[in-house]
Amino acid sequence: MAKKAKQRPESLMMSYGYKPELSEGAVKCPIFQTSTFVFKTAEEGKSFFEVAYGKRHLKPKEEVGLIYSRINNPDLEILEDRLCLWDEAEDGAVFESGMAAISTMVLELLKPGDLLLHSEPLYGGTDHFFKQVLLKYGIHSIGFMPNQTKAEIMQRVESTGKADKLAMIFIESPANPTNDLIDMKLCVALAKHYSTTNKKVITAIDNTFLGPVFSHPLKHGFDLVVYSATKYIGGHSDVIAGACVGSKELMRRVKSFRSIMGTMASPNTGWLLMRSLETLKMRMTLQAQNAEKIAKWLSKHPKVEKVYYLGLLKKGHPQYRIYKQQCLSPGAMISFDVKGGERQAFKVLNALKLIKLAVSLGSTESLAEHPYSMTHTPVNDDLKKKMNLTEKMIRLSVGVEYYQDIIDDIEQALSKI
Ligand SMILES: *Cc1c(COP(=O)(O)O)cnc(C)c1O
Fold first, then answer.
1. Rounded Cα distance, 180 and 393, in Å
2. Edge to edge, what strands does the sheet with 91-95 contain?
3. What does the pLDDT look like over 171-180, one tens digit per residue?
């Protein structure tokens, strides 16, 4: 359980929650590559299980006993404590993928007949899970667009005839790949509006793009935050992982269900993520600095029609207020339209050398892709049009390389069209 720490998270990522004396004095937390743990006595085993199955609460100063690595493991517990520091969350859970985090959290908290309200567009896997998989279990979902007003969204909810069944509001902000922001305050107000004495509408956000360094949704009243830790948290394109953080009460449910579904991360994944967290702040800070220079340069390039980047929002733009309210930095995701269409975009992508042509994001190396025909293939054409997602768009995840080298690479690629 994360205790309130006075020092900054980046200062604590190397040591927090780990006791060297329990591991032969090792400075670094070892990989506890074990499936099961030895009980000192049968009585101890019995008492650990009582806590694990909620038959009794922890006594003061008592720690949760280690039982079996599907239920708990030191690498995961220490990692979860550290992850909580960034969002100042009461508790957290790590998973073997972002999708495992999202699906486990949603399945635990929703039941047949419930309605789920979500922002559009969604990450492809989440989109499929909400619109196809949940439907099989009698859970309906309805989407809203980034610039819709509270009244318009409420009208969408009412139009389903299931407004009284609204159980969760799930958003992605900034939206992928257009960097449109969703107003967290508005979502919290909507949740309050549809909550009753017997039913609290839960607010959850996929904070993969800006979190956990540049966006802290719990402070804006959100209940749960999920991550694809494959992206910035992992940060090296070498691990698939996910996370969910929030209140003790909700996380107790999510963690119990994780034990049943078996969607927890492995000890090795936990260890890799702990290593990644040590450099999280400096990686994201440098990536954001690079992105700012690159976006400004792109916005002046004659072969670039439009740049989608939070740092270019002007005062007076409807999104500017939301940006100031809930983001600490524009982050390092840039999309841009080249002049032309698919042919020109492909030419640029094929000519990139330093920047790799691949999906995924948030890693040390810069990556570029074509959302229209790659990550956003399943999104229907109508929605794509509404979102400004066209064939001329390229999405760039800015890495930690020297910014001028990234610019030079894009420059030579743009010269091919
Ligand atoms: C990648 C991603 C996911 C899915 O995460 P995995 O780790 O690939 O399962 C979910 N949401 C967003 C925003 C993502 O970028």
1. 15
2. 91-95, 242-246, 224-228, 202-206, 166-172, 115-119, 140-144
3. 999 999 999 9
What spacing in Å lies between the alpha carbon of 263 and ligand 1's midpoint?
15
Q: What's the pLDDT score for residue 414?
A: 98
- Residue whose CA is at the smallest distance from ligand 1 atom 4: 98
Query: Cβ distance 93 to 255 under 8 Å?
Result: yes
For ligand 1, whether the C-beta of 240 sits within 6 Å is yes
Q: Is 98 in the pocket of ligand 1 (CB under 6 A)?
A: yes
Q: What is the mean pLDDT of residues 124-129?
A: 94
Residue 379 tokens, joined: 């999104």
Distance CA 344, CA 38 (A): 61
- Could you give the domains of the chain? 69-277 (3.40.640.10), 280-414 (3.90.1150.10)
pLDDT digits 0-9 by tens, 293-331: 999 999 999 999 999 999 999 999 989 999 999 999 999
Pairing of the two strands 166-172 and 393-397: unpaired
Q: Rounded CA gap, 241 and 102, in Å?
A: 11
Closest ligand 1 atom, CA of 172?
Answer: 13
Q: Is the CB of 234 under 6 A from ligand 1?
A: no
Nearest CA to ligand 1 atom 12: 123
Ligand 1 site, residue 231, Cβ cutoff 6 A:
yes
Q: Which of 96, 97, 99 to mutate to test the pocket of ligand 1 (most atoms within 8 A of CB)?
A: 99
Q: How far is the CA of 281 from the centre of ligand 1 (A)?
A: 20
**pLDDT digit string, tens, across residues 325-352:** 999 999 999 999 999 999 999 999 999 9
